[in-house]
Amino acid sequence: MLIKNQIYEATITDYTAEGQGVAHIEGCAVFVPNAIVGERVRLRIEKAQKTWAAGKIVELLEKSPHRRSRECPVAKLCGGCDFWHMDYEEETRLKAQRVTDCLNRLAGESLDTLPILAAPTCLGYRNKAQYPVAQKKGKAYAGFFRAGTHQVVENPRCRILPEQTDAVKGTVVDYVNQNRVSVYDEAAHTGLLRHIYVRRGAVSGQILVCLVVNGSAIPKPEALIARLKAIPGFATLVLSENTRKGNAVLGDKFYTLYGPGWIEDTLCGLTFRLSPRSFYQVNHHQTQRLYEAAIAQAAITKTDTVLDLYCGVGTITLAMARSAGKVIGVEVIPQAVEDARENAARNGITNAEFFCGDAGAAALALEKQGVRPDVVVVDPPRKGLNADAIEAMARMAPKRIVYVSCDPATLARDVGLLKQRGYRLQSAQAADLFPRCAHVESIVLMTRK
Ligand code: SAH
Fold it and tell me: What global pTM score does this model have?
């Protein structure tokens, strides 16, 4: 076992899924934040367990040629981004490698490093922010949680957000301070304002502001609305009532204080209505490229039936509807399903049907009713597919399965399970939708043997 507080020398040989460097010392894996593969470092052991340890660089003995000075002044503190200390080339290399390694290790593939759809810019790409609000010396401020804590780190200008989003945050914070709106205190479960949620349509420029409050009203809403109206694109203000303890950001009740309660944006040539609770990918440009890849892999013909599980507001479903005979979307959040139906109507799409429910249960029910899709598209949350979804897909036996994933480990697990049910991996690629952050998307095509 390594000794806490002792200094060791080591070479960084790998990355964790969270983007930390990994070194091996005396048979123990040491996780080192802000480290780059190939670097020789002196590190201090901060935590020591039998098989692993956490270390901190105290001296860089040999720097990687990929090391960069951080463009973000709070990057080391803020838990939002992971990779400001390296160039983008290294970031995309490690992301492609991670997807490849997962499929090789967990799905029994033997792939060479997969291609990755790299992003044209790392700046201003995020169309959504959820700022936790805190208080310092009686003044409210908002920012992002420090990694692994609920301490709020202030950042006047977040590099991955558009400036309008930060402008909304600043405006709300000013309103809070001038009107003495109380700030939520997590430990005591007192105070009103918890989070400032901002979503801005990358194409439409429309801005939705949602304040998450431990209550059901805010003082002087008209004062806030007047201020927000000065920000170009401001379209709607919604309150989300969240009076529960815990980490969930949004509550279940929503009150629209100004505008329609939703915004619109354009993706893949279609217009989408987006409510606060609806999932919408945060990187518009890269999402469009990812969905174009999904559509190409689905190779849909005019007579095909497509089943889209975990369809959100129907983005992929409706983008595929144009080339399919019929599309069916399944989504668990009722508000998103309402948005999806509304989105079909506003785009004049008449061959789409949406069901609200668990993807697995709904797919099994559809299978019982005799639905036999030619193509199944899945885009589940990080935990991947549940057993019912896999079972339903195996019984429906579509020619093609297009799997869009935000977690390569669960993707690889599910690919392995589908391989046992008569499918083979036809193609796979990674996609970078979250530059500077450790998350990586991927897309695979499976075909029936
Ligand atoms: N394909 C959409 C949404 C993908 S995100 C898009 O790209 O925009 C995953 C979606 O799965 C979310 O909308 C989430 O609400 C939904 N979801 C989560 N668990 C689910 C379940 N058990 N059954 C159906 N949908 C689920």
Answer: 0.94
